[in-house]
């Protein structure tokens, strides 16, 4: 089961920075990441953005180096209205992102299964639409149960 | 088994490069090809590829401009699943090209 404290339904945020700060604060409050994490993610997003176009649907997977992480986890939010993230493929391109996965990864070699599961989530558009339209945290946790470590 | 060394590049040098490396290993194993992957950041890519230990580069972040001595393959489609077949076709094309030279 995903940590429900890291799931936010229909977040109201004006910018991608605000989303990262809000989700990062949840990670920080649970001790999953270090104090340096949020700024490191914001900095990385400016230079190497993480918006991903998935057909006519976009997600973002902000993250940073493992040095800023204490314990691996994923924070997830659906948005009240789509937010602009820049594309991982082409950083100049703006994407209207509908679901954000903030990743904290401590040891990618140990967390390969989690990362693989995340890739299969991206490849399942029907599942992502259900996540986007979910009406409770429990529903999101259920839909994304494959991500639970 | 045929073996290839891949430099898997992403912005943090950890997260999406590991995702790509692992998925590529699995996909290539079905073809009888063993992939060994090393993860790296974009800033390290050129220098590492010049070291001569890698057969090709896969990347999920834009690579810095430079004269890469080995083929570079955009792997974002492999990450999202939109462009997965094209990515694997490109990998097979590169592998065949390498094999025809050796």
From TrEMBL, chain A:
Keywords associated with the record: Pyruvate, Transferase
Entries under InterPro entries matching the protein: PTrfase/Anion_transptr (IPR016152), PTS_EIIA_type-2_dom (IPR002178), PTS_SugarTrans_NitroReg (IPR051541)
Occurrences of domain PTS EIIA type-2 (ranges): 1-147
PANTHER family cross-referenced by the UniProt entry: PHOSPHOTRANSFERASE SYSTEM MANNITOL_FRUCTOSE-SPECIFIC IIA DOMAIN CONTAINING PROTEIN, PTS SYSTEM FRUCTOSE-LIKE EIIA COMPONENT-RELATED
Coiled-coil stretches noted in the UniProt entry, renumbered to this chain: none
Protein name from the UniProt record: Phosphoenolpyruvate-dependent sugar phosphotransferase system EIIA 2
The organism of origin for this protein: Pelosinus fermentans B4
One Pfam entry name: PTS_EIIA_2
Keyword Lipid biosynthesis: no
GO MF term list: transferase activity
PROSITE patterns hit by this protein: PTS_EIIA_TYPE_2
UniProtKB/TrEMBL annotation, chain B:
Keyword field: Transferase
GO MF annotation, one: protein-N(PI)-phosphohistidine-sugar phosphotransferase activity
Span of domain Phosphotransferase system EIIB component type 2/3: 6-64
Protein's name in the database: Phosphotransferase system lactose/cellobiose-specific IIB subunit
Biological processes, Gene Ontology terms: phosphoenolpyruvate-dependent sugar phosphotransferase system
Secretion signal, residue range per the UniProt entry: none
Lineage: superkingdom: Bacteria
UniProt keyword Transferase, yes or no: yes
InterPro entries assigned: PTS_EIIB-like_sf, PTS_EIIB_2/3
Keyword Transferase: yes
